[in-house]
Every structure is written in C-alpha cells, then in structure tokens.
Amino acid sequence: MKKILNYFLLFMFMMFPVSIFALENDDNVVAMTEKYYKTTTLIGTKQNNTLDNIDNYYTYTEEVTKEEYDAYKTNMIEPQAIVTVETTYKKLKSYITQRNTYYRYNAVLEWKSFPKVRSHDVIAIGHFASVKLKGNVHFEQEYCDKDNNCRTLSAYQPRTFTAGSSASFKLPAGDLTSLKQTIYFDVEKAVDATVIKQNASGDYAHAIKSINLMEAISHTVSNSGIQHIDSCKDSFDSMTEATATWQGSW
Asked: Are 200 and 227 contacting, i.e. CB atoms less than 8 angstroms apart?
C-alpha cells in the first residue's frame, strides 16, 4: 500500500509540479484587486504624412471591463484621423500578503498593447501613514520580443515617502510580445496602536513624451497614487488607482 501511495504522489508531482510548488511557497493573500485600462493618446496634427506641433499631446485613460480588455487584439488597425492616435490596454493588480508579523504590498502592471513612446515610467504603491517601509523597495521588469528572447531587468530608481514608495525606470525598446512591471515592499506599523485597515493603492504613470530620469522621479506618492510636480505632470498619462483593502486587527 505504501508503494502504491508513493507512485501516486510521484505521478501527481509530474502532472502538476508548478501548482504544488506554488501552494507550498505562496504567501497568504489577504486582499486583492485588479483593474483594466484603455489609454487613448493623440499626438500632434497630421498633414501630408508628417506630424506638426509634435509637442502637442493629449491623453485620456478610462477603466474598461475585463471582457473589453480580453477582446482587444494587439494587431487591430487604428482608425485614420487628422491626428496620430495610439490606443493601449493594460491591467494593474494590487494585493496584500501577510508575512509572519508584517505585510507585503504588491503591484503588477501588465501591458496588452505596447506604447510607441518608450521613455521613463513610474510604478508605485500608496498606503496609509499608519505603516512604513520595512527594508527596501523591490522592482523588476520582464519582457519578451518577437524572436522569443525574454529578459528581466532590475534597473530602477526607488523613492520612499510617508505614505508610499515608487520605482522609476526606462522601458525597453524593440518589437515586444509581452511587457510587465512589478513592485513590492514590506511594511511594518508606524504607530503604537492597533491597525484596523490597510490600503495598498497601486498606480502607474506612463510618459507620453520622451523625458529624462530626473523628470520621472519628480513626484510624490500617497494613498491617492502618483503626483508629479506641475512642470512634469503633462508629460504623463493618468489612471485611477487599483486599491487592495484589508480590514482586521494588527
């Protein structure tokens, strides 16, 4: 009977190795939310196949349903207009995991269609001031190109504030088939009192024009997301935060 059981366990491991590994090593997710976005960017005016007033940008981001996000095909042709139109879709997931006596805040931004402008972007998580950063901000950027060459980049500039932390980074160039950014950090209590509510407000700011790193890091982060200074805010699109909320006693 013991030999039969061992064969059964070996068969299960061979059939589902990733799932078993995930169950053994995954953190305890205590709160999670996921949002889907469509961004429309108008760039300059189009005359005789050339762009005039190239610095004239307009961008608008709206939340869409999962069904619309899933239905969008990356090879869809944009309609012709007097302006250059770019439509991109992306999803943002925020979640909180419990790790022994502290918590980890996580945000993952995944692109379904890829932006033409590849400059310096920002991903961040805002939170209540009742918690503070424990350790360092962690970031990674994963992507694959059309030749199925995949890489993971970890170059970024972290910033930490009273109510949030961020990572500023450069987007990869080339013809991509996947692109994802992840930020996470651990938090501990910043108050000598019981914490009954936590928010992990994931946010992302995409640069719609070419900027430098100093412009990207000229921002603050709070529970309301990323706020760039006045001289830089028009260089980025804007989207609503994806906020994971935990309630309990800590």
From this structure: no
Quote the pTM value.
0.82
Residues 6+ apart with CB under 8 A from 194: 249, 250
CA distance 231 to 182: 27
Q: What's the pLDDT tens digit per position in 92-140?
A: 999 999 998 999 999 999 999 999 999 999 999 999 999 999 999 999 9
Digit-coded pLDDT (tens) for 51-75: 344 455 678 899 999 999 999 876 5
Q: What is the four-CA torsion angle of 154, 219, 235, 208, rounded to 10 degrees? A: 30
Taking each continuous run of H as one helix and of E as one strand, the counts in the chain are 5, 14
H-run or E-run covering 141: strand 131-145
For residue 185, the number of C-alpha atoms closer than 13 Å in the C-beta half-sphere is: 28
Q: What is the DSSP string of 171-193?
A: PP-S-EEEEEEEEEEEEEE-SSS
